[in-house]
Specification:
Length: about 130
């Protein structure tokens, strides 16, 4: 199953990819979160790569409660679901950026946003 993880930020959207049969999570690019082109670019990428599932980080507050950022991500997912009919799972993304910053040098070419998406996807796979 082709799975893509999304670290949705107000400026950038980090992506990671995995074929769960292989179990290897890889950085998959980053797009600037600018306008409707961003939405279209993601929809086209998901269709082109024949993605079977989307995993997206849910930015809960430190207290575990939803906030304005959570609402923003849920709206983004609702908009995606209008065009893409594949399952979407949420993963608590608290501290993923800090974990991404601690990733070793083997990921030197990956952006912080891609690394955060990788952490989200690895967390999701570990719970399956």
């Amino acid at each position: 199953m082709n799975i893509i993880a999304i670290d949705y930020g107000s400026k950038n959207i980090g992506l990671a990819w995995c074929d769960d049969a292989l179990g290897v999570v890889l950085p998959f690019g980053m797009v600037q979160n600018a306008d409707n082109r961003t939405h279209n670019e993601l929809v086209n990428l998901i269709k082109k790569e024949k993605i079977d599932k989307i995993v997206i980080g849910l930015p809960l507050g430190l207290d575990g409660k939803e906030n304005n950022n959570t609402t923003r991500v849920r709206k983004f997912v609702d908009d995606l679901k209008k065009e893409i009919k594949i399952p979407v799972d949420f993963v608590d993304e608290r501290f993923t950026s800090a974990q991404a910053d601690r990733m070793d040098g083997g990921m030197a070419g990956a952006s912080r946003d891609e690394k955060a998406a990788m952490v989200i996807l690895e967390s999701y796979l570990a719970k399956q």
